[in-house]
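worker-3 :: picked ArsR family transcriptional regulator
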Amino acid sequence: MAAVLCAASASALPPHASRAASASALAPAAPAAQTGEVPRFTVVTHRPGTSPGLLFATPQSARDSGAVHGPQILDDRGRVVWFRPVPAGQFATDLRVQRYRGKPVLTWWQGTSSNTGIGKGVGYIADSSYRVIATVRPDGDYAPDLHEFALTEKGTALVTSYRTVPYDLTPVGGPKDGQAVDSVVEEIDVATGRRIMRWSSLQHVPITESDMPVELTHGAPYDYFHVNSVAVDDDGDLLVSGRTTSTVYKVDRETGAVLWRLGGRHSSFRLGAGVRFNWQHDAMPEGRGTYRIFDNGSVAGSPGWESRVVRVRVDARRRTAAFLGQVTHPVLQSVENEGGSQRTPGGGTLVSWGSSSRISEFAKSGRLLFDATLPAGWSSYRVYRSRWSAEPAAPPAVSVGPDGALHASWNGATGVARWRVLGGDAPAALKPVAEAAWQGLDTAVRLDPLPRFVKVEALDAHGTSMGSSTAVPTDS
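worker-3 :: tokens ->
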């Protein structure tokens, strides 16, 4: 599977290779306990003061073609609460809690990707029992891309997609009969699938704004813009990030006109010291003219290349952009691809350092509160933190491993604190024989001797039963 590069770096760019996944391939997958190894974060730093809630991530491997990919929820100790493996050759991005029809839902994108970081797939919306209640699927040549799946208060979804078209590239030194990649933003009514609006970069942004030298594409379609985030600003218009133009655009939601440019070759604003960013991701509005941007820094290998999260305040009347502050990692210097951030309730910042395999949370003061890493070669494009209360429709499960240990699991249940094990000589004659603290997606319990039949009961923090498995024989 191709890694999610989230825009081509300044190196050889292979041609597109992805195809939209079929509906059958995107059917609900089996619980994680029935699949291969679940990717795990290793918590390096965990200090008091982190924001409440769970972490929502989408680990993927750029190196291991046999790796198990999928969205996952984890706690501050790195213990996996929920994992949904996706079919081989696919991966997931943008797992987060959003609201749909007045209720909290879990959303993510799932599909395939080319080596140039362009995805084709489906956006999923699931309820608090993890039942998929809605999807946003491909519309002809426009398939939802991996970079954005944002729900709005109107019951619509903002998605990105890419389309290769014949294009005259002579203004940037390319061939007249070349090809360009059109970055597309769509707003889709989730309930009906009806398209509300479609914005095309090629219709509104000339290819001469790009920071990507056309010769570095080596004949591949020219991805001059590479949209990688879309958000609704507080005035209702859209904020669109173009990675390879190093520009954040304010776009009229009705007409598609570019209202202003922040950064890049033709910035509408005079940039204050510390504002300029390059090859950015995840440009998000915070309200009242303040914006938060994951600044990847520049093309890999540039002198002084440092990635950061930068906050900028725009004064539309005076046409100025002022530096408000930044977050950098004390050890990590550069992140070539991916990346994102989230403002925490206390004024701190949660950061996914993209392709660096690291996620961090910082206090408002800048102090590092939480730091976790994935194995080398793994990354999570974005990471979010949210409160989430869920109880799966399926009951808990118990099995006996090859080593004779019992394994208790309830994939996605957020309130389990302990497991009670019941055992006996017959399914109708079971009594409590042990208890064990919940240890994540799979909790191993050893009993000696092992009863002929066992079942497990999930207990909350008050010792109240939340649900139980069926009784299973231990000698099967």
